UniProtKB/TrEMBL annotation:
<dbReference type="Pfam" id="PF00196">
    <property type="entry name" value="GerE"/>
</dbReference>
<protein>
    <submittedName>
        <fullName>LuxR family transcriptional regulator</fullName>
    </submittedName>
</protein>
<dbReference type="InterPro" id="IPR036388">
    <property type="entry name" value="WH-like_DNA-bd_sf"/>
</dbReference>
<dbReference type="InterPro" id="IPR011990">
    <property type="entry name" value="TPR-like_helical_dom_sf"/>
</dbReference>
<feature type="domain" description="HTH luxR-type">
    <location>
        <begin position="727"/>
        <end position="792"/>
    </location>
</feature>
<dbReference type="InterPro" id="IPR016032">
    <property type="entry name" value="Sig_transdc_resp-reg_C-effctor"/>
</dbReference>
<dbReference type="InterPro" id="IPR000792">
    <property type="entry name" value="Tscrpt_reg_LuxR_C"/>
</dbReference>
<dbReference type="InterPro" id="IPR027417">
    <property type="entry name" value="P-loop_NTPase"/>
</dbReference>
Length: 797
């Protein structure tokens, strides 16, 4: 999540799951608001922090959430909505923040409900005001379906949901500007404390003295205690004294008050502060501020240089950007080794207003679209190569900008003049959405809009999109919709008659047959498409699209491998994966190479070649960690468990199964998502339990489940050893309520009967049972009953 005004950056949380950002600057004041918010949380499952822009709602929400962490075993999760423009993607955005990928055959909303229904989670929905209706409906639905869920929202308006409690966030406390308090009393005022803290950060030698005390009090009072305004003023201490800052603010306020007496005072204050900051910028900086406001969710320097007009991108461009950073107009944030720049939403909205006033807004939108189209095209041309990891990271960081550009490409002004733009853009994004992130819902959202609005696009692009949309529908288990797309794709391809369109139609038909349970019928379409692609590659036709063609050929080989394997032709399946490796390995590609290595490793294991299986699985896991695909990483951990039990290492197998299960829960998937592999999972679990016993298996399983992702991967690869499972007393494993539930399960009671006995809801009872299964590493109620019988004397009463 991008940091707001440089105050926070995303960091991992060790003690409990979640994604709260770490504070990089001191948190000032708000004791009363924090206490009141916590009190409201104790009486309501939905609390909204409401207030004007710049009053500090987000920072307060993060602090309240951090202070509430102990109460939420499932973690505290921040969902930043300020950059989201399309309410249709609200569920996808929340799921992404929680790390939940799409699941075939299920809506994102249902996945969210299942994930949240039995977990004690605090969801922080930040900046809801522009999505008010959608957030209200979505939040109410989640709260009704998930009894353990609580929501903390920030908005300029209340959501209007039943049971909502609202805390109006006031400005920071300020001293009386008419009668300045003595120096020793100034620190008790929050606004003064904030000004001093931020001024000292900019100018370490700054101190509050008798000489500047009145000026600082005047600044805080004139700015009405608004944190954003105070921070913008404090940064000027580098070039001005407190008295000079005060003088300039006084003049501005008089002018603004006379100009708009009906505007709310605090809006006047914030507006005057931003106006003042704008006018302190040089003319070029003002232009740059306006032009850079076209970016959503931040940008990198190459994007700024590509989107801004040539007259701004000269020898002084970098100096002007650096000056805007110094003035706190731009916020610098580090994403690994990459530096991104962003604006607070209030600052960006101001710049956008100036851009519209200048008449340059349509031009800026066009340039923003064109640059991001080129970015996606370049990513596609280098996707099957050594820079794949780079491009995955870059497109991840640019998702907000890509969504903005896609939405603009679908407006009438673009479609009328560039009907191909949207289709090219969407088709270019498909590999990212599908291969590496599993964002099938988002892919279908944009493809559906494009197929509806871009009728004038080239038929060749439309054929390709129909193929992509059919596969996406199949991954969502919507076979009727997929079949309709395949029929449209086939009809259009036959009308065109060109080899590439016919290939796309064959790929589409092949995948539909595989997902429909008729793999034998998929073999011929895949063979025909792959042969055609190979023949055209040999003749060197269509060089401009050769890379994407190779990508589709690899996708076809994956389809043929699946169809052949499911049809019993293991030899052809292995040959396909070996051909994929022959294509991708010299190119330095990661994703397809990892998948084929993992598959070949599994095949080697089934014929008893455990050493080769371990080598191929290790290769897959090392590759997949570089592109951060948690689902496939979980598959690899599971495969290592199967290898371990074959090599008579049951403890290692149990640890790896626990790690795979924990990673799958985090990713929102199953450890084994391919049905034909379930038999191997069950066999490994049975052999491991037989070797270790129920108690020993549970201890080893919990050891693995308690590992972080990096530790689990290192353990699987042999890069680090883990301690043997500790022989700790079993009693503390379960809470008192979970122990009660386990006893009732052992007595043979159903979830409904357990709910009646304990006077809780059936859904809560179900959640407790799932927690017991997870903590003990079990998969059935019978195993719980056996565990209760074996460990009854050791459990806490």
């Amino acid at each position: 999540m991008p940091a707001r005004r440089g105050d926070v950056v995303t960091t991992s949380v060790k003690d409990k799951p979640g994604n709260l950002p770490a504070e990089l600057t001191s948190f000032v004041g708000r004791r009363h608001e924090i206490a009141e918010a916590r009190r409201l949380q104790s009486t309501s499952r939905l609390v909204t922090l409401a207030g004007i822009g710049g009053v500090g709602k987000t920072r307060l929400a993060v602090r309240v959430a951090e202070d509430s962490r102990r109460a939420f075993a499932g973690g505290v999760w921040l969902v930043a909505l300020g950059e989201l423009r399309d309410p249709a993607l609200l569920a996808e955005t929340v799921a992404a923040a929680l790390g939940l990928p799409d699941q075939p055959g299920r809506s994102v909303s249902s996945v969210l409900v299942d994930h949240l229904s039995a977990r004690q989670i605090l969801l922080v929905l930040d900046n809801c005001e522009h999505l008010l209706g959608a957030v209200a409906e979505f939040g109410e639905a989640l709260l009704r379906a998930c009894p353990e869920l609580r929501i903390l929202a920030t908005s300029r308006e209340l959501l209007g949901v039943d049971g909502e409690r609202v805390l109006r966030v006031p400005p920071l406390t300020v001293p009386d500007v008419e009668q300045t308090p003595p120096l020793e009393a100034m620190s008790r005022y929050e606004a003064v404390a904030l000004f001093v803290a931020r001024a000292t950060a900019c100018l370490p030698e700054f101190v509050l003295t008798e000489a500047n005390c009145a000026a600082v009090a005047g600044i805080c009072g004139r700015l009405d205690g608004l944190p954003l305004a105070i921070e913008l003023a404090a940064v000027r201490i580098r070039a001005m004294s407190a008295e000079q800052i005060m003088e300039r603010l006084t003049d501005r306020y008089r002018l603004l008050t006379v100009g708009s007496r009906v505007a709310p005072t605090r809006q006047q204050t914030l507006r005057s502060c931003v106006d003042w900051s704008y006018e302190l910028c040089a003319a070029k900086e003002q232009q740059l501020w306006a032009w850079l406001s076209v970016f959503v969710g931040g940008f990198e320097l190459d994007a700024a240089e590509g989107v801004c007009p040539e007259e701004l991108v000269d020898d002084d461009f970098l100096d002007a950007v650096a000056s805007l950073v110094d003035k706190s107009i731009l916020v610098r944030e580090e994403c690994g080794e990459i530096v991104r720049l962003s604006m607070a939403e209030t600052i960006r909205a101001y710049g956008s207003e100036k851009l519209r006033e200048s008449g340059d807004f349509p031009r800026a939108q066009r340039r923003h679209l064109a640059w991001h189209e080129q970015l996606v095209e370049l990513a596609g041309s280098e996707w099957l190569g050594p820079r794949q990891v780079h491009w995955i990271g870059r497109l991840d960081r640019e998702q907000s900008n890509l969504r903005e550009a896609l939405a603009f490409s679908m407006t009438a002004s673009v479609i009328d003049t560039e009907p191909d733009a949207t289709a090219r853009f969407v088709n270019g994004m498909y590999t990212f959405w599908s291969s590496c992130r599993g964002q099938w819902g988002e892919a279908r959202h944009w493809m559906g809009r494009c197929l509806t609005t871009a009728d004038a696009a080239r038929a060749e692009e439309r054929v390709l999109m129909l193929y992509f949309d059919s596969v996406s529908a199949e991954m969502q288990a919507k076979l009727d919709e997929a079949a309709a797309r395949v029929a449209q794709c086939r009809e259009l391809a036959e009308q065109l008659g060109d080899p590439e369109s016919l290939e796309a139609a064959n790929y589409a038909s092949g995948y539909l047959a595989v997902f429909s349970g008729d793999p034998a019928a998929a073999v011929e379409p895949f063979r025909a498409a792959i042969a055609s692609a190979g023949a055209r590659s040999a003749t060197g036709s269509a060089p401009s699209r050769s890379v994407s063609r190779v990508g589709r050929q690899v996708g076809g080989l994956l389809g043929l491998a699946a169809a052949s394997g499911l049809s019993g032709d293991e030899e052809t399946a292995v040959a396909c994966h070996e051909q994929i490796l022959a294509i991708t390995t010299p190119r330095g590609e990661h994703h397809f190479r990892a998948y084929s290595s993992w598959t070949l490793g599994h095949t080697a294991l089934q014929v008893g070649e455990t050493d080769r299986a371990a080598t191929l699985t290790e290769q897959a896991l090392r590759l997949i960690r570089q592109i951060n695909d948690p689902v496939m990483a979980g598959w690899c951990l599971e495969s290592f468990a199967w290898i371990a039990i074959r090599e008579d290492e049951p403890t290692r197998a149990a640890v790896l199964m626990g790690a795979a299960e924990a990673l799958a829960r985090t990713a929102g998937s199953a450890t084994v998502t391919l049905p034909y592999l379930l038999v191997h999972h069950d066999e490994c679990e049975r052999l491991t339990r037989d070797a270790l016993g129920i108690r020993g298996y549970g201890e080893a399983f919990r050891t693995g489940a308690g590992m972080g992702v990096d530790d689990a991967v290192a353990y699987a690869l042999g890069d680090r050893r883990t301690e043997e499972p500790r022989k700790a007393p079993v009693a503390p494993v379960l809470t008192r309520r979970e122990a009660e539930v386990a006893d009732l399960v052992a007595e043979g009671l159903t979830n409904k009967e357990i709910a009646s006995v304990l006077v809780i809801s059936p859904r809560t009872a179900q959640g407790h049972v799932e927690h017991v299964l997870s903590k003990l590493g079990f998969t059935s109620r019978t195993q719980i009953a056996a565990w209760v019988a074996e460990n009854h004397k050791n459990r806490q009463p």
